[in-house]
């Protein structure tokens, strides 16, 4: 039976999962485990955590397969759910992950052409919000996050106190979090990026 299941499209495998066919779930598991694992590992940089989150997601798929809409497309559903799991993990643990440029690059290449367009749009929204910072605050924030300068280096170059630099960066982060909270994908970038 598993030989014929291997050739079935995702939506038919999901129907078999709804009927309790474990072999169908095993096919979906093999089909998506490594892709989801590689996707989450790019952001988490921790093999154990990445594997744990993927296993958790796929177990939920099996347990809740009877609750999923018949018209659902498995790949976008799984990658969106995986992204949310990674985001939740990062939020809870304040993990330091990739620099913003690397996160944007991974977002652009991780899923599909549609994913690329969405990632570009989200990066554009983020950049437009950075431009809304006051000129001094924006300069300090960009020197810290884009030029990877320390607070002390920024203070010396701009002839400010280190405390003033820290205040500018904290205020910038608060502003971005507040104004980008409705953009889950950008919140993900910020969670990865702003705690560094």
TrEMBL record:
One of its GO terms (biological process) is DNA-templated transcription initiation. GO terms for molecular function: DNA binding; sigma factor activity. InterPro entries: RNA_pol_sigma-70-like, RNA_pol_sigma-70_dom, RNA_pol_sigma70_bacteroid, RNA_pol_sigma70_r2, RNA_pol_sigma70_r4_t2, RNA_pol_sigma_r2, RNA_pol_sigma_r3/r4-like, WH-like_DNA-bd_sf. Residues 127-172 form the RNA polymerase sigma factor 70 region 4 type domain. Coiled coil: none annotated. It holds the Pfam family Sigma70_r4_2. Gene3D superfamilies: 1.10.1740.10, Winged helix-like DNA-binding domain superfamily/Winged helix DNA-binding domain (1.10.10.10). Keywords: Sigma factor, Transcription, Transcription regulation. Residues 28-93 form the RNA polymerase sigma-70 region domain. SUPFAM superfamilies: Sigma2 domain of RNA polymerase sigma factors, Sigma3 and sigma4 domains of RNA polymerase sigma factors. Belongs to the sigma-70 factor family. ECF subfamily. NCBIfam families: Sig70_bacteroi1, sigma70-ECF. This is RNA polymerase ECF-type sigma factor.
